[in-house]
Amino acid sequence: KAGAAYVPLDPEYPLDRLHYMIEDSGIGLLLSDAAMFDALGELPPTVARWCLEEDAATLANYPATELPFISLPQHQAYLIYTSGPTGTP
């Protein structure tokens, strides 16, 4: 319904792999916990961040009204990175 796709990021991955996935996927908003943000360090300026602990009150106050339906069957729901023979996701 939100019209967005998600990219799961495993905190066990090496930092350079996580940064590659964030930049390569074109993430516009990263929703995570404080520990993940601390581990990631500086994010590209195009990536907004919502921290579950720090932004919980703001997120809880978002209206619970129906979202406009903007998803279509051909829209991406998620992006999964796997390791190929090169070792690059």
Which helices and strands appear, and what pairs or packs with what?
Layout: H1 15-25, E1 29-32, H2 34-40, E2 48-51, H3 56-60
Parallel strand pairs: 1-2
CATH architecture: 3-Layer(aba) Sandwich
By helix and strand content, what is the structural category?
Answer: alpha+beta
Global geometry: flat
Would you count the extended β strands for me? 2
Order of helices and strands: HEHEH
Question: Main beta sheet, described?
Answer: 2 strands, parallel
Q: Give the tally of structural domains.
A: 1
Spans where pLDDT lies below 50 across 5 or more residues:
none
Could you tell me the mean pLDDT?
Answer: 86
Q: Give the DSSP E fraction (strand runs of 2 or more residues).
A: 5-15%
State the helicity in percent bands: 25-40%
Strands of the widest sheet, in order across it, are 1-2
Written account of the structure:
With 89 residues, this protein is α+β, with helices and mostly antiparallel strands. The protein has a single domain, classed as Rossmann fold. Helices cover 26% and strands 9% of the residues. The protein has a two-stranded parallel ribbon. Helix 2 (34-40) links the parallel strand 1 (29-32) and strand 2. The radius of gyration is 15 Å and the shape is flat. The two termini are 28 Å apart. The relative contact order is 0.25.
